[in-house]
Amino acid sequence: MGWEKLPGSLCNTVVPLEQAEHQWLVLAADGQWTQQLHGLLLGDASLAARRDFISGFTALHWAAKNGNCDMVTNIIRAAEKGGARVNVDARSHGGYTALHLADNLVCLFLGTFCSEEYQLENLL
């Protein structure tokens, strides 16, 4: 099936991903911090803000969804080191921020110690 068979409005919005962007999104969706991910971010700090075109997730969304606190921290630090600011309030197409997806990782984003009681209350 070629592009010509897609509805007109969709044809005008389809934009192929650059190789680095594609690799970044695929690796980020795995929710694991790797040397490859780090290398891509060092090469282009703006990748931290790139979104999955289907879900609207950024790498922070994937890291939070997978409960990977180290990945969240590493993305923010590496991007800022490269001169890019990471928007932790970026919303997915469904309206969710990374914090919404973090389930019980409020401590990570607020930088506070959460009591066991608080964690148990928020699991429900």
CATH architectural grouping: Alpha Horseshoe
Main sheet? none
Low-confidence stretches: 1-6
Distance between the termini: 46 Å
Secondary-structure element series: HHHHHHHH
CATH class: Mainly Alpha
Protein name: SWAHC protein
Pfam families: Ank_2
Keywords: ANK repeat, Repeat
InterPro entries: Ankyrin_rpt (IPR002110), Ankyrin_rpt-contain_sf (IPR036770)
Could you characterize the architecture of this molecule?
The protein is globular and about 30 Å long. Residues 1-6 have low confidence and may be disordered. It has 124 residues and is an all-alpha fold. The protein has a single domain (3-121), classed as Serine Threonine Protein Phosphatase 5, Tetratricopeptide repeat, CATH 1.25.40. It is built from 8 helices and no strands.
SSE inventory with pairings:
Blueprint lengths: L7 H4 L7 H11 L5 H9 L15 H7 L3 H13 L16 H4 L4 H5 L5 H6 L3
Helix pairs in contact: 2-3, 2-4, 4-5
Please sum up the structure shown:
With 124 residues, this protein is mostly helical. Helices cover 48% and strands 0% of the residues.
Feature tags:
48% helix, mainly alpha, 0% strand, globular, Serine Threonine Protein Phosphatase 5, Tetratricopeptide repeat, 124 residues
